[in-house]
Recover the amino acids of this structure.
């Protein structure tokens, strides 16, 4: 489940995005709130619009709080602001935040807590974590839960950073189309989604956690700020942890002022900002009073990164330029600082990682107790559950759980941990980096590259640490930065350093700054070009699809189509004019949203028939279909059957719709005919007749997904059956259709029992936004493909079927001619029948050829519009 939206689709239609709010920091948003220029509701809706537009490609969010809850919460906070403008809950009153999916959220928030793992997806939390309550008490709005590396990277050593079973692969907003996969910017982990969401402007703030680097590293590769609070400075109950001795949480933001404001809430230290302001050195002296040690750019960096990024002359120059700027702005800087490598933090052969394995089993058992009992008690149960549900929990290629197994098999006992951990703290802190800082002139801060093991010192010692952005690597545009740590209890000093950094480096407009994200409120970040470029191409593809299918935008005043008139429908039911005229209904108007959902469903079934229902109402002789939903039924290649569970599903679905204000009734059913056209089989006729008998007015719609893609437009038909007493002319189905030979007999056998309705499509102003969402998620990937390539099997089957028909028709003509010789005058009618058969075959061959020609033309057009294949060929 890559993305959980907990409300019905109609709520997407009420988005009223505010221009550029996503570009502003939380501090800037608060200023606008105070000035009365915007409301918290405006901010929430802007965030939701951004999420709905981009999360389908970034995969950075796992779940979103229900929209009605969000709007209600924001509205109440706006009311508090109006009533008590000088008594706000905090500096972040009315500001949305995204939480990494390690923070337990209670049922009242409408979001699961999964840690990215399928095993937790169905569990119900008993209550929210105290830290979540603390954020809400401060007036913050919990917007959603972020994707992450599953189990914080402790599931398997094969899993890629940012990937989880529940959310798939989190993608960097810096990805580029001109790069191969191995060269693409990474997201790092495990707080991948939290960092990406902030960098892409989906929310101004997020919260993550780490044992070592899992918070600050993802932030650094996304070009944003992050701060890990000091050990035990915030409550960790209800937070998924690997280690009880090293884990802590912290904020991610695009502006240092936001980091400080959220740190004050998390650590309940409201004086941070006041203390920082009192020690401000003023213009061009931002670092005055700070003693900073900077290790060499390659210190603690893996050799593969030294050969790449950190050996790059431009990166080294930017790194050393940072030293110069800090000195030039009043700081005392020791460079290069001499420090022992982090692998020296080892006691009796044990390290921070090995001790974490020893603590993990107890921590996950503690975490499981945050949920109502669901048959899972401990890590062994988790491993067993994953094995039992391997297709879901262990999908290829991430089909192992080696780290979980290693943790459950750890030989480290509590008494061993009690002995080892204090020694590790001493080696990293008092006898390690603390001593280096003392001997180097009582340093306040130690700085390193953002891909080194300085964070190991911070984790083992229990010190706070942070990351600050520095530049972008020219190879792929990947941001990089610097890690910073300060001593235990010196959180204020570290936050002061981060604040000074933001003032100096965000104002330094170097020649290369155009390639960087700019994070000040005067020059806010823009979404990376890969997303905006794709959005333009998707918009072009969407308009092409609407044109192909003649989808018309109705007059905005007709948006009342979505306002169900119960009295009018009741009056129509009482009058029942369709009982007097079996051809009473003549038209079907299908919304673009319903059309695309039905076609997506039909395509997903492949060669198997699928089935779903349509919601809407009748208006005179017209069915108006406003929405459609699939049914959980089993299909075959020739039929689809709705079982008892499907009926229960229908009742439950409609009850949920009505609870959300959706009063439309079911007005029909739809199903697919993969590759054999839109008409009703004998079973279809019986099904429709039964539905018309018991819940008329009712409609049958058939979609052919294969012909849809082959033709570039939706192949769809709408039908109603005649009552049993009606005698219709046996004229056959309307229009010429090329029906496979094995379906030909059935095609004509029942055509007198039903008639077709005229189908048209509309797009209201209300469903335009939802259509764009569905389009971005699916259809551009389908219609941007070559129809001749994606439907080769269908085209081949058409040709083979045509050949079979020609052989049979030819044999029939020979037989008829023989009959004419034996019985004088007996073959005249047969000869005419043979001519008619050959005429139909000629029409069918012409139609196949026309579709192939259209496919060739579409190839060129779509290559130019969607895939830039024309440009690639020229190069």
């Amino acid at each position: 489940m890559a993305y959980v939206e907990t409300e019905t689709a109609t709520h997407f239609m009420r988005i009223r995005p505010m221009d550029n709010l996503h570009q502003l920091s939380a501090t800037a948003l608060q200023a606008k709130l105070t000035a009365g220029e915007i409301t918290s509701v405006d901010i929430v809706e802007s965030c939701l619009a951004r999420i709905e537009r981009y999360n389908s490609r970034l995969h950075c969010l796992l779940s979103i709080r229900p929209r009605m809850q969000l709007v209600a919460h924001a509205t109440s906070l706006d009311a508090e602001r109006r009533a008590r403008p000088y008594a706000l809950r905090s500096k972040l009153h009315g500001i949305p935040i995204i939480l990494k999916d390690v923070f337990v959220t209670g049922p009242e928030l409408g979001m699961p807590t999964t840690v990215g793992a399928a095993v937790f997806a169905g569990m119900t939390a008993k209550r929210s974590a105290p830290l979540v309550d603390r954020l809400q008490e401060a007036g913050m709005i919990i917007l959603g839960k972020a994707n992450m590396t599953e189990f914080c990277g402790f599931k398997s050593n094969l899993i890629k950073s940012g990937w989880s079973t529940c959310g798939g692969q989190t993608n960097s907003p810096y990805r580029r189309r001109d790069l191969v996969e191995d060269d693409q910017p990474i997201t790092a982990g495990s707080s991948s989604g939290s960092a990406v969401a902030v960098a892409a402007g989906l929310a101004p703030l997020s919260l993550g956690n780490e044992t070592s680097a899992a918070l600050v590293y993802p932030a650094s590769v996304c070009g944003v700020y992050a701060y890990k609070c000091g050990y035990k400075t915030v409550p960790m109950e209800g937070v998924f942890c690997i280690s009880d001795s090293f884990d802590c949480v912290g904020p991610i933001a695009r502006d240092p002022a936001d980091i400080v404001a959220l740190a004050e809430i998390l650590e309940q230290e409201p004086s941070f900002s006041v203390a920082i302001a009192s020690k401000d050195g003023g213009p061009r002296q931002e670092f005055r009073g700070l003693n900073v040690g900077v290790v060499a750019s390659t210190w603690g960096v893996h050799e593969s990164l030294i050969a790449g990024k950190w050996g790059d002359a431009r990166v080294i120059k930017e790194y050393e330029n940072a030293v110069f700027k800090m000195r030039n702005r009043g700081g005392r800087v020791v460079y290069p600082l001499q420090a022992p490598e982090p692998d020296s933090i080892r006691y009796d052969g044990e390290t921070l990682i090995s001790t974490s394995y020893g603590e993990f089993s107890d921590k996950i058992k503690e975490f499981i107790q945050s949920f109502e009992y669901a048959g899972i008690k401990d890590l062994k149960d988790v491993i067993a559950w994953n094995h039992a549900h391997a297709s879901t929990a262990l999908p290829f290629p991430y089909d192992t759980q080696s780290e979980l197994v290693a943790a459950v098999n750890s030989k480290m006992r509590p008494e061993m941990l009690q002995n080892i951990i204090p020694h590790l703290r001493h080696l990293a802190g008092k006898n390690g980096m603390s001593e280096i800082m003392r001997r180097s002139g009582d340093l306040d801060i130690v700085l390193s590259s953002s891909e080194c093991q300085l964070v190991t010192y911070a984790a083992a010692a229990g010190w706070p640490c942070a990351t600050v952005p520095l530049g972008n690597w020219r190879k792929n545009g990947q941001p990089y930065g610097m890690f910073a740590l300060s001593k235990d209890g010196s959180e204020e000093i570290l936050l002061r350093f981060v604040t000074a950094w933001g003032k100096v480096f965000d104002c330094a407009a170097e020649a290369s700054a155009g390639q960087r994200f700019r994070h000040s409120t005067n020059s806010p970040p823009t979404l990376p070009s890969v997303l905006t470029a794709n959005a333009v191409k998707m918009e072009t593809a969407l308009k092409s699809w609407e044109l192909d299918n003649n989808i018309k935008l109705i007059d905005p005043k007709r948006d009342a189509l979505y306002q169900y008139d119960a009295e009018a429908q009741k009056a129509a039911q009482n009058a029942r004019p369709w009982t007097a005229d079996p051809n009473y209904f003549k038209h079907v108007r299908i919304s673009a949203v319903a059309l695309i959902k039905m076609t997506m469903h039909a395509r997903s079934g492949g060669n198997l028939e699928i089935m779903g229902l349509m919601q809407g109402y009748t208006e005179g002789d017209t069915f108006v279909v406003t929405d459609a939903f699939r049914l959980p039924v089993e299909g075959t290649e020739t039929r689809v059957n709705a079982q008892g569970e499907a009926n229960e599903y229908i009742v439950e679905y409609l009850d949920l719709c009505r609870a959300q204000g959706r009063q439309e009734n079911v007005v029909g059913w739809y199903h697919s005919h993969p590759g054999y056209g839109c008409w009703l089989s004998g079973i279809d006729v019986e099904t429709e007749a039964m539905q018309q008998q018991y819940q008329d007015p009712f409609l049958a719609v058939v979609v052919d997904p294969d012909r849809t893609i082959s033709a570039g437009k939706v192949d769809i038909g709408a039908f109603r059956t005649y009552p049993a007493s009606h005698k219709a002319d046996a004229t056959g189905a309307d229009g010429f259709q090329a029906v496979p030979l094995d379906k030909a007999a059935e095609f004509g056998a029942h055509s007198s029992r039903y008639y077709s309705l005229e189908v048209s499509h509309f797009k209201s102003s209300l469903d335009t936004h939802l259509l764009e969402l569905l389009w971005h998620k699916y259809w551009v990937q389908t219609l941007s493909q070559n129809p001749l390539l994606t439907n080769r099997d269908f085209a081949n089957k058409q040709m083979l079927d045509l050949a079979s028909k020609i052989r049979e028709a030819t044999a029939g003509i020979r037989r008829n001619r023989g009959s004419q010789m034996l019985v004088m005058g007996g073959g005249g009618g047969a000869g005419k029948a043979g001519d008619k058969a050959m005429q139909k075959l000629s029409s069918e061959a012409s139609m196949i050829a026309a579709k192939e020609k259209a496919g060739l033309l579409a190839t060129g057009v779509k290559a130019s519009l969607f895939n830039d294949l024309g440009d690639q060929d020229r190069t």
